[in-house]
């Protein structure tokens, strides 16, 4: 088996506990990828377009995967997803919606907007560790991700 691809994972989530749980779950899963955080859709797009405090590329390495919460202040995940997938320079970045919602409307809308995957956040930490392990296997060991954007 080839070595794992090490890419930056960018998580957009306004809940500090969810961000902490995700980081701890990655450490528990021994995921070597770097996990970076933004707190809402506005920050997510600032990061992706390297605006404001994310202007320096060292502070905003291009993510290989985005974990996106739907329910955030300022600009929610749905709006951010629509902008990402309509931007030729961003649309190839896989976006995994990771949210508390189980609503069919949110699932359908997320896929219609271009989400690559929709996962309802597990209610337990062990469940989150399992999700991180599956994400790692799928996105970084099985799937071929683009290494550069044309």
**pLDDT < 50 stretches:** none
Give me the CATH fold name: Rossmann fold
Spell out the CATH superfamily.
Answer: Response regulator
List SSEs in N-to-C order: EHEHEHEHEH
What would you say this structure looks like, in words?
This protein is of the alpha/beta class and 150 residues long. The chain has one domain: Response regulator (Rossmann fold). Helices cover 39% and strands 17% of the residues. The chain has a 5-stranded parallel sheet with strand order 2-1-3-4-5, sandwiched between helices. Helix 1 crosses helix 5 and helix 2 packs parallel to helix 3 (77-85). It is globular, with a radius of gyration of 14 Å.
Summarize the structure.
By secondary structure, the protein is α/β, with parallel strands linked by helices. The chain has five helices and five strands, in the order βαβαβαβαβα. α1 links the parallel β1 (8-12) and β2.
């Amino acid at each position: 088996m080839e070595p794992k691809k090490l890419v930056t994972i960018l998580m957009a989530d306004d809940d500090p506990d969810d961000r902490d749980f995700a980081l701890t779950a990655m450490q528990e899963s021994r995921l070597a990828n770097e996990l970076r955080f933004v707190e809402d859709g506005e920050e997510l797009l600032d990061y992706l377009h390297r605006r404001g405090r994310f202007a320096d590329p060292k502070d905003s390495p291009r993510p290989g995967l985005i974990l996106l919460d739907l329910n955030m202040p300022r600009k929610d995940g749905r709006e951010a997803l629509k902008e990402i997938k309509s931007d030729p320079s961003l649309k190839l970045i896989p976006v995994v919606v990771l949210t508390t919602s189980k609503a069919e409307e949110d699932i359908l809308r997320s896929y219609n907007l271009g989400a690559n995957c929709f996962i309802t956040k597990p209610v337990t930490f062990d469940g989150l560790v399992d999700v991180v392990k599956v994400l790692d296997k799928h996105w970084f060991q099985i799937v071929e991700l683009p290494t550069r954007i044309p």
